[in-house]
TrEMBL record:
GO terms for biological process: phosphorelay signal transduction system; regulation of DNA-templated transcription. The keyword RNA-binding does not apply. Keywords: DNA-binding, Transcription, Transcription regulation. It holds the Pfam family GAF. This is Transcriptional regulator. The lineage of its organism: Bacteria, Bacillati, Actinomycetota, Actinomycetes, Kitasatosporales. The keyword Cell membrane does not apply. It comes from Streptomyces capitiformicae. Residues 244-310 form the OmpR/PhoB-type domain. One of its GO terms (molecular function) is DNA binding.
Length: 438
């Protein structure tokens, strides 16, 4: 096969491929082995699905209904490009008895439109607006897998992890925020075996790129010409957007901007020194040199002094998550959370803010007891070892995989003195490695 993201190579017999894939799916769900000719993208997705505790007889759950769904869709960035998506994909879907679907970055379906008879059939498997079709919820499927791997992808027939979805074929492509590069969701076309063609994958990818281009032309809601947007979650080097110019910052400059964005009233040199450096021997001269370099990087007039402050309004992804948490919009806060704040930073004030933000989200997730939100956090890089979240997940979704991971974490927590976890188990550590030598 020339393109691993395309479901069927030219000339392949779809009936024979379905038969072979069903045998391979049965072998995997019974024994965990993946046989050829399962594509690597599908095999990897099956493994992630099983690890997340998805069963082949599962079904999608509807998370957003009525007013909640309407409010969430209205605020979502992709709402602004839906007229374009409908214009490009709508006629194709209707004429081919297919469905046009758009999901968010968590795999929740926001819009499902197209042929009425096909929609009625799709309703029976909860392929409906408001339903969660993330990989971690329903296994391998085009919209869920596209946002999981951040690539356009086709899923053909028995490549779907859940059996009730296997009569369907779909192709989806992720849509990104043109300013930050973050995945906003995916556009999808779902229907019969005829979609297992390279043209359908290229088509949805072209629609996704067109949506990104239109988003780039539209002024972001609530922004001003002089505003600065700061993205610092899940990355060691923050990005900021000012005047249409996106700049990647060094780690130290990222730390300074995060702190100044949090303190629009400004910070004195002494306050910044204490916030940035554990080493009390760092001099004000060192800080002034960093600020001078940052001022040149930002451009004229953006960084004031006495006190040090940003002279324009700043919107940061940290502030977005905090506001949503404060209003109880947990799902929306998780959607905006791209990962720990500047995870490699050791600046004292940044470390405190990073822990406070993550702890606030964790507490809200545990209190909400939503199994899909808990699973998303537990399977994210920052949640793999989060014992409290795994315990909460086991209480609401006690699958064998979840219970096994919880037992592993609890065993690691109970390691005797002189031992530590590593390499998937316990290992003895030397006195020196514990900081007791010398």
């Amino acid at each position: 096969m020339t393109d691993p993201w395309v479901a069927l190579e030219p000339g392949a017999d779809p009936v024979e491929r379905v038969r072979v894939l069903r045998r391979a799916h049965e072998a995997f769900t019974e024994g965990g082995a993946v046989a050829r000719p399962v594509r690597s993208v599908v095999a990897d997705s099956w493994r992630r699905s099983a690890k997340a505790g998805v069963g082949p007889e599962g079904t999608a759950l509807v998370e957003l209904t009525d007013g909640d769904l309407g409010a969430y869709r209205a605020e979502h960035p992709l709402a602004r490009v839906m007229p374009l998506v409908r214009e490009l994909l709508g006629t194709f879907a209707a004429d081919g008895e297919h469905l046009l679907a758009v999901c968010d970055a968590q795999g929740r379906l926001l819009w499902v439109e197209g042929d009425p008879a096909t929609r009625r059939r799709a309703d029976r498997m909860n392929f409906v607006p408001g339903a969660r079709w993330a990989e971690s919820a329903v296994g391998t499927n085009a919209p869920g897998t596209a946002v999981a791997v951040d690539r356009p992808v086709q899923v053909f027939a028995a490549e779907h992890f859940i059996r009730r979805v296997q009569p369907w074929t779909c192709a989806a492509a992720p849509v990104h925020d043109p300013r930050t590069g973050r995945v906003l969701g995916a556009v999808d076309i779902t229907g019969g075996d005829g979609l297992a063609h390279p043209h359908s994958l290229g088509f949805v990818q072209a629609v996704a790129r067109a949506a990104e281009s239109q988003l780039a032309l539209l002024e972001p809601p609530g922004s001003t010409a002089d505003g600065v947007e700061l993205t610092a979650l899940g990355r060691d080097e923050a990005h900021f957007l000012v005047g249409g110019r996106k700049v990647r910052l060094s780690r130290r400059h990222s730390e300074i901007l995060v702190l100044l964005a949090r303190h629009p009233e400004g910070l004195s040199g002494d306050e910044l020194l204490c916030a940035l450096y554990e080493d009390e021997s760092v001099t004000p001269v060192t800080l002034r040199a960093e600020l001078a370099r940052l001022r040149r990087r930002l451009g004229a007039g953006l960084l004031g002094s006495r006190p040090y402050r940003l002279t324009v309004p700043v919107e940061s992804d940290v502030a977005v998550v905090e506001r949503r948490l404060e209003t109880g919009a947990v799902m929306s806060a998780v959607t905006a959370y791209g990962g720990p704040l500047l995870p490699g930073s050791q600046a004292p004030a940044v470390v405190r803010l990073r822990h406070r933000l993550a702890d606030g989200l964790r507490s809200a997730l545990i209190a909400r007891r939503d199994p899909d939100l808990l699973a998303d956090w537990a399977h994210a890089p920052w949640g793999e070892d989060d014992l409290d979240v795994w315990r909460a997940l086991a209480a609401v979704r006690p699958t064998a995989a979840v219970r096994a991971r919880l037992r592993e974490l609890e065993a690691e927590l109970a390691a005797p003195p002189g031992w530590e976890r590593g390499g998937g188990g316990l290992r003895r550590v030397s006195l020196g490695s514990q900081g007791l030598g010398g």
